[in-house]
Specification:
mainly alpha
Length: about 170
């Protein structure tokens, strides 16, 4: 639920208000990382303190704990609202930290990919590859077809000789 700045001023102390005002946009995006981490720590401490006080007041209201001050707590709504405001501030801070981490991760990935591309292009520029030989886009040179013969040239004389020998055997009978 959105709360107005006027409502925040009514619930928070002056130092808590200055911390919570820093968690609103656009000022949140302008904080350096180390200031963001310190602000996150301080707001968490305030939120934890408000949670502890609200829990103690609820126990006092139910009669489970002795009153801490002179009088027992009669209502814990203000402390609960303060806790909710501080918790919302912590959520905004956490979201901003996650956004910055995601941006840093994305930028690291981009830098790594660009570096790898540069290395690959440098390697391609200095690579020596063998010639591809004949390629289709320049046109092939026709190769001379081998001479076609019906018979094995080595056997031509052997067949003739076997015919002569067979005829001679028949004639001698």
């Amino acid at each position: 639920m959105a709360r107005s700045l006027k409502h925040e001023r009514q619930l928070l102390t002056l130092d808590e208000l200055t911390l919570v005002e820093k968690t609103h946009h656009p000022g949140l995006g302008l904080l350096p990382d180390h200031d963001l981490a310190e602000l996150r720590r301080l707001v968490r401490e305030r939120r934890d303190r408000a949670q502890t006080i609200a829990a103690r007041q609820r126990r006092e209201l139910r009669g489970k704990a002795a009153p801490k001050g002179v009088r027992a707590a009669t209502d814990d709504s203000g402390t609960r609202e303060k806790r909710d405001l501080l918790a919302a501030a912590v959520r905004r801070l956490n979201k901003e930290v996650a956004r910055r981490e995601a941006e840093a991760t994305r930028q690291a990935l981009i830098d790594s990919a660009q570096r790898a591309l540069g290395l690959r292009r440098a390697a391609d520029a200095t690579a020596t590859r063998p010639s591809p030989g004949q390629t289709a886009h320049e046109g092939l040179n026709p190769k001379a077809a081998p001479a076609y013969t019906l018979r094995n040239p080595a056997k031509i004389g052997a067949v003739s000789q076997s015919n002569k020998t067979a005829q001679a055997k028949r004639d001698s009978r």
